Amino acid sequence: MDIIKITHLRDEFLAFYHQAVTSDAAPDTRFELWKELYGFSVTQPGVQDDQLARDMLDYAFPKYAQAVDHIEHFEPSHEEIFSLLQAVKEELDYDSALHMSIVFFVGNFESDPFFETDEDEQLTLYYPIEKEMQQMDLAKELARVIHCLKSGMAYPLATSIGHITLQEGIALHTAEKVHTSLALPAPSYSWLEVCNQEPNRIMINLLPHIQRNDYEALYSFTKGRGASGYFNEAIFVGWTAVKHLLTQGNTLCELSAIPDERVTSFMEETLYDVLDNAYFVQP
Predict the structure, then answer these.
(1) Please, how many CA atoms are within 13 Å of residue 204, restricted to the half-sphere of its CB?
(2) Range with the poorest average pLDDT among 112-116, 168-172, 249-253, 254-258
(3) How far, in Å, CA of 169 to CA of 206, rounded?
(4) What pTM did the predictor assign?
(5) Residues facing residue 4 across a β-bridge
């Protein structure tokens, strides 16, 4: 039986926000209020960086006025979350019981969902709510969880660009199938349209970096501009590679079970195969 503990930090954030607004707190005082009443930071786990947290707060605070009504009325739907989880498990053919926690928090409008594990290997998904929560995105994160459990992939940290491409590709295509099966609105991706202008160049330029696991590379190919100058290059490559694998007869269930130690070499071979098909298509 699946057990998901669902909590949120909405009330803690609102206590900080309303006091900061009511008192018209100066930035220094506002940050002290934030630390006292809320203090949830999305900096790297285990790293206390007050300056980074302060910069994030200063950037986000003016934007909260437009989001506060949504935040005040946010209430996670247990039924919706369990429905998405069951659909993801069915797509990836995962029968084992899942025990995890989901914590919904208010981020800085650029916050991404992230995972942490404790000493007992208990998994917690942290999910930002300052923007409207899309079922597609939540399904992606649940697919990421199941993929990690099936493959033995380490979380929350990716071990290479190759791991990111496979993980993102499986998560995206799983979420798309879940949306189809649940008759939900079709998602749209601005990065997909942009990167499709030069798909082969993006794959060619990513290949020399596929084994890299340093922070600079991981950030560049996901949040920054990659080797070809586009945002979300690793995500685009993952989407493209997994789409190719599915057309070749593979299933998401099979792809999600590839052992962790084989992922990087498998994705490298896949990208060469995608490029071969692109450049040497037979009539």
Answers:
(1) 8
(2) 112-116
(3) 15
(4) 0.89
(5) 100
For residues 48 and 85, what is the distance between their CA atoms, to the nearest angstrom? 33
- Pairwise pLDDT comparison (255 vs 156), residue with the higher score: 255
**C-alpha span between 35 and 104 (Å, rounded):** 18
Per DSSP, what are the bridge partners of residue 5?
Answer: 101
Phi, psi of 235 (to 5 degrees): -70, -45
Please state, in angstroms and rounded to a whole number, the distance separating the CA atoms of residues 164 and 166.
6
Could you list the beta-strand ranges (E) of 159-275: none
The band of 184, judged by pLDDT with boundaries at 50, 70 and 90, is low
HEC sequence for 21-78: HHCCCCHHHHHHHHHHHCCCCCCCCCCCCHHHHHHHHHHHHHHHHHHHHHHHCCCCCH
Query: Could you give the CA distance from residue 82 to residue 79 in angstroms, rounded to a whole number?
Result: 5
Q: Tell how far CA 17 is from the center of its chain.
A: 26
Integer Cα distance of 57 and 108 in angstroms: 7
Inter-residue contact 159 to 147 (CB < 8 Å) = no
How far apart are alpha carbons 68 and 14 in whole angstroms?
8
Residue partners of 137: CB distance under 8 A and separation at least 6: 113, 175
**Residue pointed to by tokens 């991981």:** 218
d(CA 222, CA 206): 12
Measured in whole angstroms, the distance separating CA 105 from the mean position of its chain's CA atoms is: 15
- Beta strands in the chain, from DSSP E residues, in sequence order: 3-8, 99-105, 114-117, 123-128
Strands 123-128 and 114-117: antiparallel
